Amino acid sequence: MHSRTTVPITADQIKAQRLTPSEFERICDLLGREPNINELGMFGVMWSEHCCYKNSKPLLRNFPTTGPHVLVGPGENAGVVDIGGGLRVAFKIESHNHPSAVEPYQGAATGVGGILRDIFTMGARPIALLNSLRFGPPDTSRNRLLISGVVAGISGYGNSVGVPTVGGEVYFDPAYNGNPLVNAMAIGLMELPEIMKSGAKGIGNPVLYVGSTTGRDGMGGASFASAELSDQSEKDRPAVQVGDPFLEKLLIEACLEAFKTGAVVAAQDMGAAGLTCSTCEMAAKGGVGVSLDLDLVPVREQGMSPYEFLLSESQERMLLIGEKGREGELIEIFGRWGLHAVVVGEVLPDPVVNIYQKGALVAQVNAPALTDEAPVYHRAILQEPPAYIVAAHAWQPGPEHTTIADGNAVLLKLLASPSIASKRWIYRQYDYLIQNNSLIVPGAGDAAVLRVRTQEFGVGEVPESPHSERGLAATVDCNSRWVYLDPYEGAKAAVAEAARNLTCVGALPLAVTDNLNFGSPERPEIFWQMAESCRGISDACRALGTPVTGGNVSLYNEIQDQEGSRAIYPTPTIGMVGLVEDLRKTCTLGFKGHGDTILLLGPLAGGLAASEYLAVVHGLVTGKPEPVDLDLEVCVQQCCYQMIQAGWVRSAHDCSEGGLAVALAESCFPQGWGAEIVLPTGADAQILFGEAASRIVVSVAAEHLDEVLTVLASSLPGGAFTLLGTVTGDRLTLRTEELTLISLPVAELEDSWSHALERQLQQVK
């Protein structure tokens, strides 16, 4: 018989686990007794927002999650879609915000490592990484430290593990001062005939711990990620994990080799909540139990308590369920890769998790109590928008906002704005060419495009060429200022822009993974932002045919200081993948040659509300963003895609932050071509710098112009397109028949754009 002792739990211990008194009472009811400190720690992490989504689950249930391409939706380590030809792709996005705020290098690095494990746990080989980053303005030493540390952490891990970082987005705003967002997305190509799932099965099957050793790093990381940041957060530095990308590379190879033997029946990454999460979730999903002997777990530190074992988030670890009798086969594979592989327990018939140490039963919890029975809060949603929204929507632009006195100066200022300026300083630190599959790389197009190699992986029928004609496109998008000023329309716009960026490179949007970054859901206006954003995502995904396959929720992104609690802008980041049916029919963003005609698909004028122009030039964050016409969005994207496939479009670029003038300038930079643009009489800031959805700048060779005009006239409602001008020379000129609004050498514009961020990061203050 094993013994278990229970010391009464104190109120301070409950608070330390970030559990409420009512949640503690619920735990006691589920157990039929008080928990011991080990069990309390297990509930603390498993009932955190990071693990159980107790505040967001009611909203997430409204997402569309099925579709013709979806093989695995929410609930597994990653979503999986079928891209045809026997090829299946796993992908997911997750956050590592709080760890990056207190330890930017390791916080970002382990965010990359964690999302990679979600991918290869499914039996997919990681082929690409993307990221979505938010920082305060790069005009303070603290923000510059965060920026440089996060970028170094992403590059240090991704480059070393051998997975290319092929795309992303970076925004800067005071709303993220002290609370940066680090969202990492990974994509993998399935190597197994059957997708590896995480539910434990097979009574008596061995539980194997594989990978790195367990230490005290990352203690309580899941709970830490589910609380507000404050001046005391530096004391939570032990909750930040330490990663080893070289060991992760070995783990990738060993796991994929082990999976291919058929001796592994289930696999789970030891990420958030470590051993607790992996054992409980595997047991609950399989409807079985798991026993675990902590004395058998490989360690890097001596004298660890059960509590420390269970809550450690040491990196590069996995839990596998093996086929009974084949343990030795698996241990031998991991041993050849220089990794630990130890049988630490077995699958039990009853759905209970038993944890032992030194012969004693130190924790015993029904697996569903930690997972399925976690609290779900159905919070009331405000029936009217918060006061700040009402005030913002009442704003209207005046002549001082719409009149352009010096268009040259305004365009140069916008191009130098950190959120618009070239991110070359960042992405040149990433190895985006490793694996030799990157076709459209950072800076070349609106989305990344990857070749998909089939022969190397042995997936499906192998064509004569080692390369499939199919490819994969991926992007991450969110204009959080739009979401702040109108969560519903802003979230719709994020989905629409992601799909539009895929369309611009010649891809068919397939599916979404989302990362919902918000403040405290306990504040009514924040929960309203969440509810409206989720409603917007749902509506846009249904209209565009891009179901949600999974993702991550990161709440409590707030800073506690002397002035109270300050939340970030609501940032529902959209990661999206698309199918490139023929890699020979892709498109980049730069103008290609003299005499090509430039057109704008979609409305000519945008709105100044929520625009970069209004924020940078006038210092205002206000207004009601332009609503997203999803029917028009679908038409614009379908037209653009069809014309790219027909070979008529020479360049395509989404018109977003900074409006039309910025999109035209960015189209000039790749090959140095200028453009002569003629706008209607009376063109003002709303045409030059206004922002709206459903707009793409394309260039077309003269021999295809008639065909393009015919398609646009018949396909876009109300003739929603404009002939803008011609690719020519080395200046960008925007004028009306009466007045030149902007005229600058492309070289001067590019200098302002390409070096602005680096110059600001090198400032000394």
Explain what you see:
Residues 221-226 and 455-467 have low confidence and may be disordered. This protein has a 7-stranded mixed β-sheet with strand order 9-11-7-12-10-13-14. It has a 7-stranded mixed β-sheet with strand order 24-26-23-27-25-28-29, with helices on both faces. A 6-stranded mixed β-sheet has the order 1-2-3-6-4-5. The termini are far apart. Helix 8 (141-161) links the parallel strand 4 and strand 5 (165-172). The longest helix has 21 residues, at 141-161. Among the domains are: 49-370, Phosphoribosyl-aminoimidazole Synthetase, Chain A, domain 2; 587-765, PurM-like C-terminal domain (Phosphoribosyl-aminoimidazole Synthetase, Chain A, domain 2, Alpha-Beta Complex). The protein has 27 helices and 29 strands. By secondary structure, it is of the alpha+beta class.
Précis, in short:
The protein has 765 residues and is an alpha+beta fold. Helix 21 (524-544) links the parallel strand 18 and strand 19 (548-554).
